[in-house]
Each structure stands twice: as C-alpha cells, then as structure tokens.
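Example 3.2
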Amino acid sequence: MNIKPSMKRSLLTPCGINCRVCIAYLREKNRCLGCRIDTSDKPVTRAQCKIKNCDELQKNNLKFCFDCKKFPCDLIKRMDKRYRTRYNMSTIENLKNLKKMGVREFVKNEKIRWTCSHCGGTICVHRGCCYACGKKPSD
C-alpha cells in the first residue's frame, strides 16, 4: 500500500508529530485521520490527549506547542524523551524546526525525510521502515 496524502497543517500535531508518518494514520483498519480532525469515532488516546487538550493551548488558541510560554513543558519533554529513545525522532526538534522554517518548508523537508527511497512509500516513524515495502531507510 502506498499512502501519499497531501501534507498540510491538519496533519501536524500541536506537539510536533507529523501524522503522515504515524502508524495510526498509515494503517487501514481503525485509521486515525490526525489529532486535529474532530470525529466522534476518534480513538480515546487521541481524543483525550493531554497535550492536544492542554489548557495553555486551548486558552490561548495556540496551534503548536512552540508558541506556548511554557515550551518545552514537562509533557513535551517526556514525550520527546520517549520518541527519541524509541523512534529516533525528537518532537522538540520538530517543533523548533517548524517554528524556524514555517509549515510549508517543514512539510517539504518532512516529505523528503519520510519517503522511502526504494518504493516511494511512507516510512513509518513507529516501525522504522517503509509501511509499503518494509525496507528500512538504511537498506
């Protein structure tokens, strides 16, 4: 399966994750459409996400955590540590790059970073390989 949806802001989470490379977005069964999409059938883990529903984000109508005066807060730091350790990706670096580059340039770089050189499919951050062909970026 080769999923290449257009990259847009709705596929970038407040915490800096690119939904397009998330296993929940890539899979066909019980597919998540991204944490910014409001649907009643969204998985509980996304609907009740502490970062997405953060008081600071909500109160100040912020789109990304980098705009928060508390950035990086403890929630972001814990998530960043988990993602760096398990998936070799930093949500804090993503957010810093997003702020520095803007959405359009960040998305352009993400597309390059997460496209499989073997088949053109999407590399899944959670699996560390192409979701379509199963090859690792280093293969």
